[in-house]
Amino acid sequence: MQRRQTLKYIICDTLSAMLAWSALFLFRKVVLENIGFNDVLHFYKDSNFWMGLVFVPAGWLTLYSIMGTYRNVMRKARLKELLETLIATLIGVVVIFFVLLIDDVYAVSGNAGVDTYRGYYASFLFLLAVQFMLTYLPRVLITSQTVRRVHSRRFGFPTLLIGSKKKAFQTYLDLENQEIYSGNLFSGFVSLSDDIDQQLASVMPHLGSTADLRKLVEQYAIEEAIIAVEPDEQDKINEILRDLDTSGDLIIKITPDARDLIIGSIKQDSIFHSPLIVINNRLMPEWQYSLKRIADIVVSILAMIILSPVYLVTAIIVKCTSPGPVFYAQERIGYHGKPFKMHKFRSMYVDAEQAGPALSKDDDPRITPFGRFMRKVRLDEIPQFYNVLKGTMSLVGPRPERQFYIDQIVKRAPEYLLLQRVKPGITSWGQVKYGYASTVDEMVERLRYDLLYLDNMSITTDIKILLYTVIIILQGRGK
Q: N or C, fewer C-beta in 10 Å, the chain?
């Protein structure tokens, strides 16, 4: 359903962009150049028209994607759609104006200087109006159709209710009996204790306890979780949020009386008789996520091309200085707790962990002489640009760990799981400020820097971390 709805938006946006560009071209030929309708067909011979018909819609789709237009398309609101479309249209038209039209000279009668500038303004306003109307009208029709389907209970969002007592049952009743249905299709509830309200158990299945949250969210494809706990259970809310935070785009709502326990960005979501607080699970604006991914791809490609001689020389030295493979692939835990293979130049002797997983230390005998140099200047990490290009890692993000060590860290610092809200990185704030960790104690100590990164995550922060990393590499302060 989500993919089909997204496809509808993409098709309509593409057609709207093509029509708007055609209308602008026609407007400039007929109104500004005064060629007359009898000769209007000759503009179809203009190569600029056909090039624009291909590249301009592609540019619009790119802009919409960067702004997050095609994310959560089933939950769009018409008023928000209006504002987002207006902002995107203004940005896009300004780009088209300065990239394609500012140097465009067309034939006009009368005072060329005055008429040309008037023509620019007329073209700008014409495209702004036409692009907005042709884009917004199909969108609002699609959104309105979806809203009607939700309100008529023909479509809904799989929802998990967290709580098992009177408050949970009352929240269920409020949502079910509201005048305009909000779309919550309850898959079931989870309990915090053995005390379960029988009325609640009679209207939806009991799926398990809060220990099963992550598994249940995946198993039932849960899109929304509603926390409705009693006052004496509020001390468990942070633990619940910690488990839910790793569940991707899951929308988390909570009953208002627990708001003082929530740390982070929240907003009020009034759902008629049951106002709920929505916890913002996105750490950055959508356009920054898009820009971060674009930067990951561009920098990784450039780095792999520019550093190709370094790859070659390093590979030869690794092969010649110690027996074994050039590269070393190790399973790490990444985004949303999913395992992936992280690639490095081999800096240890073969079978270095024959006795089991062990963290490296200063003067570690398992590290080869050249491996020690590679670690100092972070040379062993450069194959990870391949991981970044694949999308399993980012340039900047908490360093990924093995499940063996994650299990030990979580016992002492459960908040470590919050790091799985973002992709792991080649470098991180913890890596810059603390460096490599040689014990679990040091991993826990480094954790506070990575949590600080999550609280201040932005493109600007990423740039600062990358600059600090370059300085560390040039100074050879790695270990």
A: N
